[in-house]
Backbone:
DNA sequence: AATAAATAATTGAAAAATAAACAATTAGCC
DNA sequence: GGCTAATTGTTTATTTTTCAATTATTTATT
């Protein structure tokens, strides 16, 4: 469905405006579907994201600032996000010995197990949307988004 | 910058996963820049969106459910959003005569003036990103996003 | 060594989002 | 008319986010 129909615009919109709206709307659709997957696990999108970052470290602990830097939404409050994960025993938090200002966050086995359980569902989610395009089109879309967001 | 570099992924990601990440990340960049524009006017992105919907009605009042339906993020609490706009005298709210369950929301002159002041800045914002692509590429991006999000 | 500057993370208060319960009104049906 | 169900919005409580200020530690400077 065209973005004009979705927002029921009577005027014709510039292609620039349409693109911004499309980026917003598409992200919204994708993230709502994603939230549905995480809901039963009582996990928010950002919490999932942090767990994934931690797993990416292959067992090595990760500082708060490294997590922050790798999150997609830079404005998030990493401390509170990690607090939530701690409460669920999905991660551990310890003071770093070399630099006591830093905190070392490590994903627990429980966290790894949760991610392992989610993996197929997440792949499914990605596939749900990706299947609408050919491999070539997906590569194109990635390239266009990358160019578009450059400031 | 490629999405793998941004999230500093060591593994290679499927094109499906890359696309989802790119959609998320791009929306984030665009909306952060947009928030900067609105900040001095003490307006959130969603509040701006509601004002724009109301202006689109050309002076005709609009029900809450119509507003809700046209918002990009369906989960927002429309009542609260409109409350905020009321407090700033950007809209009015009256009981609908035909169906007294409904509320008629109308944008005020002050609201219209605010939008008029924002218009060039918003266009500027859209242009900031759109200028990275040719007209053809923009159309392509719109088409690909539209296809991609189809469920 | 003492002080200033920079870095890392936390905290508190305010704002916003989310979900569930509630109230009012309308509409359909017998 | 009177009963039931559906619609429309508001309210309340809870959780999250956001923003600015603060604490603790380390590094740099005098």
Residues:
């Amino acid at each position: 469905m065209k973005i004009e129909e979705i927002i029921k615009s009577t005027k014709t919109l510039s292609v620039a405006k349409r693109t911004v709206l499309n980026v917003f709307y598409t992200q919204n659709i994708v993230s709502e579907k994603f939230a549905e997957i995480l809901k039963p696990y009582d996990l928010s999108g950002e919490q999932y994201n942090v767990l994934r970052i931690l797993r990416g470290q292959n067992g090595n602990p990760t500082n708060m600032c490294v997590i922050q830097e790798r999150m997609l939404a830079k404005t998030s409050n990493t401390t509170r996000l990690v607090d939530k994960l701690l409460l669920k025993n999905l991660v551990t938090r310890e003071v770093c010995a070399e630099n006591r200002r830093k905190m070392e966050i490590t994903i627990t086995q429980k966290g790894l197990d949760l991610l392992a359980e989610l993996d197929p569902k997440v792949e499914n989610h990605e596939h749900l949307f990706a299947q609408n395009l050919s491999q070539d089109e997906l590569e194109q879309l990635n390239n266009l988004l990358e160019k578009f967001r450059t400031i």
Observations:
- The longest strand of chain B covers residues 91-95.
- The CA atoms of residues 52 and 115 of chain B lie 8 Å apart.
- The mean pLDDT of chain B is 91.
